[in-house]
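Before the break, one more example. Copy the sequence into your notebook; we will annotate it together after we see the structure.
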Amino acid sequence: MTWPIAFALTQALEMPVYWWGTRTSELSVGKRLAAGFGASALTHPILWFVLYPVLIGPLGYWLFFVVGEALVVVMETLYLRAFGVKRPGLLALAANAFSAGVGLALASLLTG
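Here is what the structure looks like once it is written out:
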């Protein structure tokens, strides 16, 4: 899968989770959208273009997957906290677990 497709898929899956998860956070519509879109826009390129090339060799795919997703959740938690989002860690974990799970399912279906 190419990066633009993976990024678009990630946004399509995570944005609704972030939208729902920020509903009680007294944020304007614009800030809710920025919080949700920005979280993945910040971390997805880092995971894809920085962490993957550096970590995939020494760690192998599955350990890279766990370490990479954990780092993404931590980065997105800090990003969401800056917006004043309630329970940012739980929200980042939910959004990333959902998109990673769908991504793994799609990869399994496409590769057999």
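The CA atoms of residues 10 and 99 lie 6 Å apart. The mean pLDDT is 94. Try to locate both features in your own notes.
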